[in-house]
Specification:
The complex is a heterodimer.
Chain A lengths: L6 E4 L14 E4 L38 H6 L1 E8 L10 E4 L4 E8 L7 E8 L9 E6 L2 E7 L7 E6 L8 E10 L8 H5 L2 E4 L5 E5 L7 H13 L4 E5 L2 H6 L1 H9 L8 E5 L11 E5 L11 E4 L5 E5 L4 H12 L16 E3 L8 E3 L3 E10 L10 E6 L1 E3 L8 E6 L2 E7 L13 E6 L6 E10 L17 E3 L4 E3 L6 E2 L3 H6 L1 E8 L1 H6 L3 H9 L1 H6 L11 E6 L10 H4 L2 H9 L27 H20 L5 H5 L6 E4 L8 E6 L5 H10 L11 E4 L5 E4 L7 E2 L5 H14 L2 H29 L1
Parallel strand pairs in A: 13-14, 13-15, 15-17, 30-31, 31-33
Antiparallel strand pairs in A: 1-2, 3-5, 3-12, 4-11, 5-10, 6-9, 6-11, 6-12, 7-8, 7-10, 16-17, 18-28, 19-27, 20-26, 21-25, 21-28, 22-27, 23-24, 23-26, 29-36, 32-33, 32-34, 34-35
Chain B lengths: L1 H30 L4 H18 L7 H25 L7 H27 L12 E2 L6 E7 L4 H12 L8 E7 L4 H4 L4 H21 L2 E3 L7 H10 L6 E4 L5 E2 L3 H11 L3 E5 L3 E2 L4 H5 L11 H13 L10 E4 H6 L10 H10 L4 E4 L5 E3 L5 H21 L10 H12 L3 H18 L8 H23 L7 H22 L19 E2 L3 H24 L4 H21 L4 E2 L13 E7 L5 H4 L2 E8 L3 E6 L15 E6 L11 E11 L2 E8 L4 H11 L4 H11 L5 H28 L46 E2 L4
Parallel strand pairs in B: 2-3, 2-5, 3-4, 7-10, 8-11
Antiparallel strand pairs in B: 1-20, 5-9, 6-11, 7-9, 12-13, 14-15, 14-17, 15-16, 16-19, 17-18, 18-19
The chains are: A alpha+beta, B alpha+beta.
């Protein structure tokens, strides 16, 4: 065995937004084992993937410093939003009067004497004198930023007290107070927004601070991602990349927020692109270096995580160890059915709502095998208070999964200003679902006056005390096929791409999607109701539809394709916070022709749905719809197998962000077909023939609830036997009567 | 024969097994929680089925069973839903208690629904009994208990009893006078003793004249039961016919009933319906149309026939024939409660005797004339029934069949309606006034559970009782009685043995309009309901978040108010004459002036008797005779000779004095008054011409009354309620302003009973001409007791 010192040329991957040939780099590695059969093959140029900008992306930062400059200049270690919105490089939008957002700031080491840059761009509607952002670092307030950048983004530096910034993860909280300069009220609050330009916000450190260690690597990649660049993974084998995607996914999950976009590139390709801050290079299969993975400096100054092929697991462990465990409290709390659980027990402290349109939500999770379709009731025991002197018409909507269950007036002077007696709000338990649910408190406070800037209101409009509790009825362990449940049962190693998709979509998408479900996988150990990890997703493109087995797709291939290929349709409706609050009585039906027409249509729909069931046929449901992507559960027999069909050339960053959101929100793909629309929301179709399965023995105690769930799905199977039995009873009773008549005679 | 019986038993057992096998899964399915949409579909299907089958319920028993079965399933499902889904949680104990009270009331009504379904499943119509040889007919004692009724009233009853077709040697009519007892005759109060002595003497004379046995006793103990028992000790007939003092029998009573006793040796009771010649005060004050069935018709036309089917026909105090042997077995008429009739029947049923109900009215009586006396009567019934429920609960009484237990339970528990109605009336107010959550329900559930439940209840009630009860009239009656009888119920629960028997005054007559002295409780109730609506309006305005609940509860409160506002009319006593008097007759006769002043006056004039009573008669001159009879005759004495070919014994001259002569387009009508010395003769004539044919009562019961559809009935009550609100406000205002002077009656004098002349009644109705009226039953020449039509 002899030692050689080969030069390994790693190809720089293309930028996510503009793929181009980039400059070559060199990495020197000692004790590099000889290749048995060195194989040098020129890389084929990958097809250019052009990403459509989302609605909110109006510019992409032009940050392509020269290689020389890059090595010498300072590096901005940026903020990384914890709740992804997609299109992160454009800015993270915070809307409303008192929005808040948490960001991660990854630092290679504890830094003293630094200043935190906050770059903002705000709506012209903001009244600068009274609009500002308060910034906290690791729980300590470090200052306030005036929101006065209306025409162009502006940066303000806030000195960070020494000792506050630590190595690794740092939590930066940004709390905004935004005041409309002309109007006041719920409608006005929708016109208030500020974009935190995350990639231009953060701590600037000399590049030399980024050493060859895991934390520096993470900080560097974070900075690189924030700038809209991809995370480069160089390998000579696409197959190996695909195989390694579970481990790559776990690495991605360390970053939280939007999973890093990975560009998989050929190991032997010379890339002509701007220098990078960090990347991963996997040695070709034929090489094996004993002490890998380790960090090396790339020719362009980038921190290169060098790893042997097929040893992604070691890299994952290395980085995870350095970053430490995720802070607690990020997962959605689980409500135990049959038990009254106060918010405090769910880890939620007293909620305070400020402003004129307020939405405070508490997500919670129900077991995946919890299922109530019938009329059982759950109950919210609301412990609340609201401030005095609120304008007339102020109200609070209590919602479950965005459906109002109670409307509470906030303008009652007799009740204002004190903690009220607990209010019991029963609601239909079938408004809840297995998985993530949400109880939300939405307040609408009219402006007084509505045509002037709001007067300062120091006290919160309402408080929902942490003694507020939720009681969810128990249910038999039952399961209905649904996409979100299948997603929760995903085996990350079973996420794959179809051949057509491999040719069309970026390979990094695989790891990106996988990383979303890594956290679920880790949660599996503690959750008893967790479905077995047998789920799979195959990522495909519309051309794959015809090859997908299962009734749901095979009968509707053309319609499904049309949905993905038809031009975008958006409703373009203006948000109307009062839309669902109709304080007028039902008798106004007779006065308002439109309302009467709508009500009649609604009634007709309800009557029709009585006979047909609430679920329509897929083909008719798909009519007139368009989507960027769709999640499909093609077969009820194998509900754990899903397909994610992505429209080519789409901005899948928003798709990914939406899927990440599923962990915290009740909205998202469900049912059997879920369309990801151009407005970033999911439209769900549920099959009428979903098989219901009982996961426990049928007993006397659970029989009613079990049958209740079954018959709710198919009313005909309930009503027909019921009446047949009734008629049977009637006839036998009549027989008894006739017999008794004879006896009397 | 034996093998046939065992085969029938096996068949019954098999059918019961099948029923059980089907009922168990049915019960389970009915308890299953389902979604609102599924329930909506169920409600829709059930309502459509019941509505479609409703017209055939009365005629086809199979349809009746199917409809009741479907309705039963829905009602059961509703109740289970209420139990499982709609009660507030333990977090709010005050609301929970209120909700449980309401749920208890609903449970009661649901139970009553199923009992009613059972009882009305197969009402019995008995064929006529076989004729009995006259020599074999049993001896019958006709007992007429009396306390303070007038001799005129008693005279008619006793005269009619004497005219009941039955061999004279086998029949004894006995007046059981409790108003002339030794105790009363020797009362320390001289006024009482004087009255009692005079009464005793007068009634003894009356009985002598009529050939009736007069009895009285030493002490007034155990009220009516004691009175009858005292009389029973003095008679020994095999059968006993008991008649209230105002219950005038028709001659065919025994002919239609005695035969059943011969056919069924274990039969102890044949009960017949009570028919009333006047309208009850609620019916009258509410101005219900004359073709609206009387309140008691539901019981006598449907319920009692159903009770009979289950072996639970019971004694209603009068118009019933009882076997003496059975009475003796239980020591005579029972007297532990103040409803001695039902109590006696219960005691005898418990010894294995059978009863029978014959749906053919053969007595005509009087309803209480005023709302106050009506309430007193109903209070007594309610108290007595509750006493029985407490002291002689049929569920735990040995000797009864299960069906009989349920029959008695149904009859007794019906009288808990004031409590139930109070809960239904006040429950919405608990929310409207205090915000108590009495019912956890979503607006959608109201449409798929509550409204269909109510609708099905209405439809079933209408289907079963359309001929005998208009929709919502029961509710109005119950509300009108609720605030009064509730007090009696509470007192009975507190002191079950403390109640005393109070005789209902019946022979008064309403001379003018006035506000009932007991108007306050009902008025307060209506005011409270109105205040509830005002509170609802305030809550609607003040609590926008509660508007869906306010709508639901407000609708409920409005429904209550609509019924209560109409029921309030009951306290405004108004004489209203009947367009078609039930006692109107058309009997030919002749009158002759006893002291003629001219030759023309000597001639007998042909007349038609329009009305008759022991005190007054009303005649119409035949065409062509008006000229001779003018206003100059008032004060003259005439002799009336009725033309009664089938009762020649009554074709004797009855002297009377002309009190008024009226001439009009319909001819000349003469009012005549009867001198006291001729009262008995007049009573005998009255008994024959007015009360001589039971088919007259059947006509009013079965043909004159009209049925009503559900929609028409609901609209009728709604409209009447809407009109009644301003009427009541006006009447109250008038009452307050005219306290010193009584308001004028809004109608002319109402007299419909035989205790007074039918002054002012329309002379037009001619139901059955006397000449065409065959004697219902007379001892036949062939020696058999037969019923002849």
């Amino acid at each position: 065995m002899h030692t050689i010192r080969p030069l390994i040329l790693a190809l720089l991957p293309a930028l996510a937004l503009q793929t181009s040939w980039s400059a070559a780099q060199q990495i020197e590695i000692e004790d590099f084992p000889p290749a048995s059969e060195p194989r040098v093959a020129p890389a084929e140029p990958k097809p250019e993937t052009r990403v459509l900008p989302s609605e909110r992306q109006w510019s992409v930062p032009d940050v392509q410093p020269s290689s020389e400059g890059a090595q010498e200049s300072d590096v901005l270690l940026p903020l990384r939003p914890r709740s992804p919105q997609g299109g992160e490089t454009a800015g993270h939008r915070l809307q409303g009067e008192y929005p808040e957002e948490d960001f991660w700031l990854f630092l290679p080491r504890a830094i003293d004497g630094a200043s935190l840059a906050i770059t903002t761009l705000s709506s012209i509607n903001l009244l600068p004198d009274r609009s500002h952002a308060t910034v906290l670092v690791n729980g300590t307030e470090i200052g306030s930023v005036v929101l006065e950048n209306f025409s162009a983004a502006g940066t303000m530096l806030l000195p960070v007290p020494d000792g506050l910034l630590t190595a690794g993860r740092n939590l930066v909280e940004v709390r905004l107070e935004q005041v409309h300069r002309v109007f006041c009220g719920p409608d006005a609050s929708f016109g208030l927004w500020t974009d935190i330009i995350a990639y231009q916000s953060g701590i600037t450190v000399p590049r030399t601070e980024l050493g060859l260690d895991p934390l520096s690597f993470i900080a560097a990649t974070s900075a690189q991602l924030a700038q809209g660049k991809t995370f480069s993974l160089a390998s000579d084998s696409y197959a190996q990349v695909l195989n390694a995607s579970p481990h790559v996914a776990r690495i991605e999950s360390l970053y939280e927020g939007l999973p890093p976009e990975i560009t998989v590139d050929d190991y032997y390709r010379v890339a002509e692109q701007s220098p990078q801050l960090a990347r991963v290079t996997a040695l070709p299969e034929q090489y094996s270096v004993p002490d890998l993975p380790r960090f090396q400096r790339g020719g362009d100054g980038a921190i290169v995580l060098l790893t042997n092929n097929g040893q992604a697991q070691a890299s994952e462990a290395l980085l995870a160890r350095a970053l430490g465990p995720m802070p607690a409290g990020t997962s959605v709390p689980e409500v135990v059915p049959g038990k009254r659980q106060p918010l405090s027990e769910l880890g939620v402290s007293t909620l305070e709502g400020r402003g004129h349109y307020i939405r405070q939500a508490v997500p919670f999770r129900l077991p995946w095998d919890w299922l109530v379709l019938a009329s059982q009731r759950a109950q919210l025991r609301l412990d609340y208070a609201f401030v005095r002197d609120l304008p007339k018409g102020a109200l609070l909507l209590v919602k479950i999964n965005d459906e109002t269950i109670r409307l509470l007036p906030l303008d009652d002077v007799n009740q204002a200003g004190r903690r009220l007696d607990p209010l019991l709000i029963p609601f239909a338990a079938n408004q809840l679902q297995p998985g993530v649910n949400e109880v939300s408190f939405e307040a609408l406070v009219p402006g007084e006056p509505a045509d002037a800037a709001c007067a300062p209101q120091p006290a919160p409009v309402f408080q929902i005390f942490d003694t507020t509790s939720l009681t969810v009825p128990e249910s038999p362990r039952m399961v209905l096929p649904r996409i979100d449940r299948s997603l929760a049962s995903l085996d990350v190693s079973r996420i794959s791409m179809s051949e057509a998709a491999q040719r069309t979509l970026p390979l990094g998408m695989l790891a990106q999607i996988s990383s979303i479900y890594v956290s679920d996988e880790t949660a599996a150990a503690v959750s008893q109701d967790q479905p077995p990890r047998t789920g799979s997703i195959k990522i495909g493109i519309p051309a794959d539809l015809s090859m997908i087995p299962g009734d749901i797709v095979s009968k509707n291939v053309a319609e499904l394709e049309e949905v993905l290929l038809s031009p975008p349709t958006t409703t373009g409706q203006v948000v109307d916070p009062w839309a669902k609050v109709d304080s007028r009585g039902w008798w106004t039906l007779f006065l308002d022709r439109h309302k009467a027409t709508d009500s009649l249509r609604e009634l007709r729909g309800k009557i029709i749905s009585l006979w047909r069931g609430p679920e329509s046929d897929l083909d008719s449901w798909l009519l007139g719809r368009s989507a960027e992507a769709m999640l499909v559960q093609p077969s009820m027999e194998t509900p754990e197998d899903l397909w994610l069909i992505v429209r080519p050339n789409t901005d899948y960053e928003r798709l990914v962000a939406s899927l990440v959101d599923m962990h915290q929100k009740s909205e998202g793909p469900k049912g059997q077909v879920s369309l990801f629309g151009f407005d970033g929301t999911w439209q769900v179709w549920r099959s009428a023939s979903r098989p219901l399965s009982l996961q426990e023995p049928l007993t006397i105690s659970n029989a009613r609830a079990v049958v209740g769930n079954y018959v709710t799905l198919s009313p005909g199977r309930y009503i027909a036997p019921l009446f047949l039995l009734a008629i049977g009873c009637a006839l036998s009773a009549m027989g008894l009567l006739v017999a008794s008549r004879r006896r009397k005679k | 024969m034996k093998s046939s019986s065992s085969a029938q038993s096996a068949t019954s057992l098999l059918l019961f097994g099948v029923w059980t096998v089907l009922a168990v899964p049915l019960l389970f399915l009915a308890s299953v929680p389902i979604s609102v949409s599924t329930q909506g579909l169920l409600a829709l299907v059930a309502c459509v089925l019941i509505y479609g089958l409703k017209p055939f319920v009365g005629t086809r028993i199979s349809v009746r069973f199917v409809v009741m079965s479907i309705a039963g399933v829905f009602v059961l499902r509703y109740w289970l839903w209420r139990a499982f889904e709609t009660l507030p949680s333990l977090d709010d104990p005050v609301s929970l208690i209120a909700a449980l009270v309401l749920f208890g009331a609903e449970t009661f009504t649901v139970g009553l629904f199923f009992l009613t379904a059972l009882i009305t499943a197969d009402p019995v119509t008995h064929p006529r009994p076989e004729p009995i040889r006259l020599s074999d007919v049993p001896t019958v004692d006709i007992l007429v208990p009396s306390y303070d009724e007038s001799p005129e009233l008693l005279a008619v009853t006793l005269a009619a009893a004497k005219r009941v077709n039955y061999p004279e040697d086998r029949k004894t009519v006995v007046l059981c006078d409790d108003g002339g007892t030794d105790q009363r005759c020797t009362h320390s109060d001289p006024a009482i003793s004087e009255r009692a002595l005079a009464r005793r003497a007068r009634l003894q004379a009356l009985c002598d004249e009529l050939g009736v046995v007069y009895t009285t006793r030493a002490r007034n103990e155990h009220a009516k039961a004691g009175n009858l028992n005292a009389a029973l000790q003095k008679v020994s007939g095999e059968l006993v016919l008991i008649l209230d003092a105002d219950h005038v029998p028709t001659p065919d009573f025994l002919a239609r009933t005695v035969g059943y006793f011969a056919e069924r040796p274990r039969l102890f009771l044949v009960q017949t319906p009570h028919f009333f010649t006047n309208r009850d005060p609620i019916e009258r004050n509410l101005a219900l149309p004359e073709n609206c069935p009387s309140e008691n018709e539901m019981f006598y036309s449907e319920i009692h026939r159903g009770l009979d089917r289950l072996g639970g026909a019971f004694f209603c105090g009068s118009a019933a024939l009882l076997r003496r042997k059975a009475l003796d077995e239980v020591g005579g008429i029972s007297g532990e409660t103040i409803t001695e009739d039902a109590e006696t029947a219960l005691d005898i049923h418990a010894r294995g005797w059978e009863s029978l109900y014959l749906d053919h009215a053969m007595i005509a009586g009087l309803q209480p004339e005023t709302f106050a006396s009506f309430i007193q009567q109903r209070g007594r019934w309610a108290t007595g029934m509750l006493q029985m429920l407490i002291l002689k609960n049929p569920i735990f009484r040995s000797g009864l069949t299960m069906a009989q237990r349920l029959c008695y339970l149904n009859s007794m528990s019906f009288w808990l309606f004031p409590l139930i109605r109070t809960i239904f009336l006040l429950s919405p107010l608990l929310y409207l006034f205090f915000g108590l959550e009495i019912f956890v329900v979503d607006p959608e559930e109201v449409f798929v559970y509550i409204l269909p439940y109510l609708l099905i209840g209405f439809m079933v009630q209408n289907a079963l009782f359309s001929e005998v009860r208009w929709p919502q009239i029961s509710e109005v009656y119950e509300i009108a009685q609720t605030p009064y009888i509730l007090k009696a119920l509470v007192e009975t629960v507190l002191r079950p043995r403390g109640a005393s028997f109070k005789v209902t005054a019946k022979d008064g007559s309403l001379e003018h309009a006035f506000l009932s002295p007991i108007y306050r409780p009902l008025t307060l109730l209506v005011a409270l309901l109105l205040a509830g609506l005002a509170a609802g309006a305030y809550r609607w305005y003040a609590f926008p978040g509660d508007r869906s609940v306010v709508q639901i509860v407000g609708a409920w409160a409005l429904y209550n108010f609509v019924l209560a506002a109409y029921a309030l009319r009951a306290v405004f006593e108004r004489p209203r004459r009947l367009i078609r008097p039930r006692t109107a007759v058309s009997t030919p006769g002749q009158i002759t002036l006893l002291a003629p002043t001219s030759e023309a006056d000597r001639e007998a004039q042909d007349v038609t008797i329009l009305s008759a009573s022991p005190e007054k008669f009303q005649l119409q001159l035949k065409d062509g005779t008006q000229e001779a009879w003018t206003a100059e005759h008032p004060g003259a004495t005439v002799a009336l000779v009725p033309t009664l070919p089938k009762a020649p014994d009554l074709e004797t001259a009855l002297p009377m004095t002309i009190s008024e002569v009226r001439s009009g387009v319909e001819g000349t009508v003469i009012e005549l008054s009867v001198a006291p010395e001729h009262m008995v003769q007049a009573a005998q004539l009255t008994a024959h011409v007015v009360y001589g044919d039971s088919r007259r009562w059947q006509f009013f019961r079965k043909f004159h009354s009209q049925s009503s559809t559900l929609v028409a009935g609901l609209l009728y009550v709604l409209a009447k309620s809407a009109i009644s609100i301003p009427q009541s406000i006006f009447d109250f205002a008038r009452e307050l302003t005219l306290r010193s002077g009584r308001p004028e009656a809004d109608d002319t004098l109402f007299e419909d009973a035989f205790t007074g002349a039918t002054k002012g009644t329309q002379p037009n109705p001619v139901l059955v001409a006397e000449t065409n009226v065959p004697q219902a039953s007379i001892p036949q020449a062939d020696g058999y007791l037969r019923i002849e039509d």
